[in-house]
Design a protein that fits this description.
Distance between the termini: 63 Å
Largest sheet: 5 strands, mixed
Order of helices and strands: HEHEHEEHEHHHHHHHH
Number of helices: 12
Number of strands: 5
CATH architecture of the largest domain: 3-Layer(aba) Sandwich
Number of domains: 2
CATH topology of the largest domain: Rossmann fold
Shape: elongated
Radius of gyration: 23 Å
CATH class of the largest domain: Alpha Beta
Helix content: 40-55%
Oligomer: single chain
């Protein structure tokens, strides 16, 4: 059945998914003629269940199902295969239903109950949206090197694909390559030297390097200290 407007949906289904922008979830829920016969589920990563309060007050069961995946226009259900999907619901029965749906789509469900949803969603954004931001930064540094900006995306994208494949296959310390993994103090110093005239990207480089140095990379203490000193925030003291 195809519904001509949102008010018809609740009459046609007892399980309703709100696939709308986050800012519209509450108002959409409020507008639907939901009753105790319904369950309503939003797909937001950052919102909890409180945005569905009006449905809960009318006796409806409420929940959230957030797939850790991007869905460009025209995507199919095949993009669920092999991913993780966060789930929270107001009762065990709906939790079970949503877990079953996730598994049927090929995903692995996990609980978002009690989770800091903003921090959880920020982690997802860092690993998805901000990879694009890294390519924006890399393209600018590519230009500073004297290379044509038009070639940056095609030249650098395979490095990102290779890193992503390594992360899927290996633990993070084993997936990492490059100067930090090798303990190559000289290369890191040269990168920071050339980025002196680009303070924003120098700061980004240092911040990301500090996170990499949290990994157990098997570096000597001398190398670890030298790298930490190089990438410390200006004016701070490295451990």
């Amino acid at each position: 059945m195809h519904a001509a407007d949102a008010s018809q949906i609740a009459g046609a289904a007892d399980l309703v998914f709100l696939a709308v922008p986050d800012a519209a979830v509450r108002d959409t829920c409020d507008a639907l003629p939901l009753t105790a016969a319904h369950a309503v589920v939003h797909l937001s990563g950052v919102l909890g269940l409180d945005c569905l309060q009006s449905a809960a007050e009318r006796g409806a069961r409420v929940g959230a199902l957030h797939p850790l995946q991007a869905f460009p226009a025209g995507s199919s259900e095949s993009r669920f295969r092999g991913i993780y999907t966060g789930i929270e619901a107001s009762d065990a029965a709906l939790t079970g239903e949503l877990e079953a749906i996730a598994r049927a789509l090929g995903a692995t469900p996990f609980s978002l109950a009690g989770v800091d949803r903003a921090a959880y969603h920020a982690a997802a954004v860092l690993t998805s949206n901000y990879v694009v931001a890294l390519h924006v930064a890399a393209a600018e540094v590519w230009r500073l090197a004297g290379l044509p900006p038009s070639t940056a995306r095609a030249a650098l994208a395979p490095l990102t694909l290779g890193a992503a494949e390594a992360i899927v296959e290996r633990e993070l310390p084993q997936a990492l390559t490059g100067p930090i993994a090798r303990g190559d103090v000289r290369s890191v110093a040269s990168h920071l030297q050339t980025l002196q005239g680009d303070p924003d990207h120098a700061a980004l480089y240092r911040a990301l390097a500090r996170d990499l140095l949290r990994l157990p990379l098997g570096l000597s203490e001398e190398t670890q200290v030298a790298l930490a000193a190089l990438v410390a925030e200006p004016g701070s003291r490295s451990a």
